[in-house]
Amino acid sequence: MNLETKRAIILEARLARRKQLSESANPYPEGSEAFEVWQTFYRMVLADELRNDLIDSEYEASAY
Asked: Could you write out the DSSP letters of every residue in 10-29?
């Protein structure tokens, strides 16, 4: 897979998560390199969201 293709897949995955599509929205065949790249970057955005939510909730709790 060339870098341009990989970058396009990464952008698709990030956009899918931001649109709150489910992980099953991965359009690539399971087991393919494209599937793995998409899934990895989808989960990275999800992890960032969860981390930000945790930080926000800790900040709110410390305010009291």
From this structure: HHHHHHHHHTT--GGG--SP
CA atoms within 13 A on the CB side of 48: 9
Q: What is the pLDDT of residue 29?
A: 98
Spatial distance between the Cα atoms of 28 and 47, rounded to a whole number of angstroms: 21
Q: Are 12 and 34 a contacting pair, CB within 8 Å? A: no
Q: Which residues neighbour 37 within 8 Å (Cβ) at sequence distance 6 or greater? A: 1, 6, 9, 10, 13
Q: State the pTM of this model.
A: 0.77
What residue numbers bound the domain in which 51 lies? 3-62
